[in-house]
């Protein structure tokens, strides 16, 4: 009985082995969608990319440098010595990106060294948004403006720099954002003919002043002057008032008239005792 069982098991094993060895062998065939090999494509060594080719993949960076790059308008590879090497798994972005300190010394001194906090896009170096963190150190670079604000206190001294320069660094606001014109049709571009914005109470009286500006504060005087029949109506305000609020003496222009005797001058030492109103002198009709 035992021998019979051994014979049966042996037969079964031989049958299985025979089936395995008798199975046909499958031959590997090429994948039909693979492209044909073409070694000629790699027969030459590639040349370095040109700036125009960099811009084909990085158009925003290229246009940024073109329009607002400032002194950063040079070959990309002056900064990017390692490129196309970023690997998210390695998290190596910081390692391959150039650092400002490779070229720049601390432009704003040691008080502020976080360049990208203001110059947020190094490809647009001349564009720097106005940021609160810069407000307290504006005077580090703009020392003359700081001196003027301190030396000639005004309402402008009391406001923060970013109250006016609020859009981006270097932005020049219009005076109309806060101030009314001196007369209805006044162009705000004329404000700085009289007012230095950082010391506005020191008023210049240059030759290019639009005289109607004076009417904003001196309306009655301007009306008399502009309608007078006397020769003073042909004289500009700043011909006599070469400084704001400066009151000239008649003798500065007229001296002692030849037809005014010493006796007359002794009796009437003040010219306006007779001539009454300097802006509307009495004239013969």
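-> sequence recovered:
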């Amino acid at each position: 009985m035992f021998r019979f069982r051994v014979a049966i098991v042996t037969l079964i094993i031989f049958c299985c082995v025979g089936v395995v060895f008798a199975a046909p062998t499958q031959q590997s065939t090429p994948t039909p969608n693979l492209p044909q090999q073409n070694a000629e494509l790699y027969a030459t060594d590639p040349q370095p990319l040109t700036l125009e080719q960099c811009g084909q993949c990085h158009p925003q960076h290229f246009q940024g440098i073109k329009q607002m790059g400032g002194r950063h308008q040079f070959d990309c590879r002056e900064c990017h010595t390692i490129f196309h090497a970023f690997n998210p798994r390695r998290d190596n972005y910081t390692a391959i990106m150039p650092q400002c300190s490779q070229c720049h010394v601390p432009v704003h001194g040691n008080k502020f060294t976080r360049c990208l906090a203001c110059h947020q896009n190094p490809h647009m170096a001349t564009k720097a948004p106005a940021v609160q963190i810069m407000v307290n150190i504006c005077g580090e670079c703009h020392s003359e403006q700081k001196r003027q604000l301190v030396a000639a206190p005004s309402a402008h001294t009391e406001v923060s720099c970013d109250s006016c320069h609020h859009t981006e660094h270097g932005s020049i606001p219009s005076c109309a954002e806060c101030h009314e014109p001196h007369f209805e049709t006044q162009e705000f571009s004329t404000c700085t003919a009289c007012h230095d914005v950082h010391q506005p109470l020191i008023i210049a009286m240059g030759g290019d002043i639009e005289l109607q500006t004076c009417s904003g504060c001196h309306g009655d005087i301007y009306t008399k002057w502009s309608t007078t029949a006397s020769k003073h109506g042909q004289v500009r305000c700043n011909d006599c008032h070469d400084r704001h609020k400066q009151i000239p003496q008649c003798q500065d222009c007229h001296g002692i008239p030849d037809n005014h005797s010493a006796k007359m001058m002794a009796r009437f030492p003040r010219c306006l005792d007779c001539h009454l109103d300097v802006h509307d002198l009495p004239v013969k009709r």
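Residues 211-275 form one domain.
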